[in-house]
Amino acid sequence: MGGRKRNEYALLELKDVHKCPNLKVNIIAVVIEAGLPKLTNGTDECCNIRVIDETQYETSMSIIMFSQTAQTLPHVFPGDIILLRNVTVRMLSSSSYPLLFLFFCNTIIMFAGKKT
């Protein structure tokens, strides 16, 4: 195998996401808020979740997940730990904060949070 240009399995901390506009990244985070699916202006469904990690626990980051149907969106709940693979980082022109966009040709792995 030849040398790879980047480590496609490397994890990025949330505090560094703003340094990677328009790149695909891998992240592990804890869900602190999960919205209900809603129809976009087009034909897709979307859902917004807010996450934190050990580097960004005082302020959260928003992730918008898109899919063709609400049934194919992942069902995440506050307290779940998620692994996001190949998530595209986008910066909105109206904000200095990055948003993560997840289109479901990517991979999401969820670990259910323990209810106490």
How would you characterize the overall build of this protein?
This protein has 116 residues and is mainly β. The protein has a single domain (14-111), classed as Nucleic acid-binding proteins (OB fold (Dihydrolipoamide Acetyltransferase, E2P), Beta Barrel). The chain is 0% helix and 48% strand. The chain contains no helices and seven strands. The protein has strands at residues 24-34, 38-39, 45-53, 56-67, 81-91, 98-103, 107-111. Strands 1-3-4-6-5 form a five-stranded mixed β-barrel. A hairpin with a 5-residue loop joins strand 2 and strand 3 (45-53). The protein is globular and about 30 Å long. The model has no long low-confidence stretch (mean pLDDT 77).
Offer a quick outline of the entry.
This protein has 116 residues and is mainly beta. It is 0% helix and 48% strand. It has no helices and 7 strands.
Question: Beta-sheet strand percentage?
Answer: over 45%
Determine the CATH superfamily. Answer: Nucleic acid-binding proteins
Q: Given the helix and strand composition, which structural class is it?
A: mainly beta
Relative helix content: under 10%
What's the layout of helices and strands?
Elements: E1 24-34, E2 38-39, E3 45-53, E4 56-67, E5 81-91, E6 98-103, E7 107-111
Parallel strand pairs: 4-6
Antiparallel strand pairs: 1-3, 1-5, 2-3, 3-4, 5-6, 5-7
Feature tags:
116 residues; OB fold (Dihydrolipoamide Acetyltransferase, E2P); 48% strand
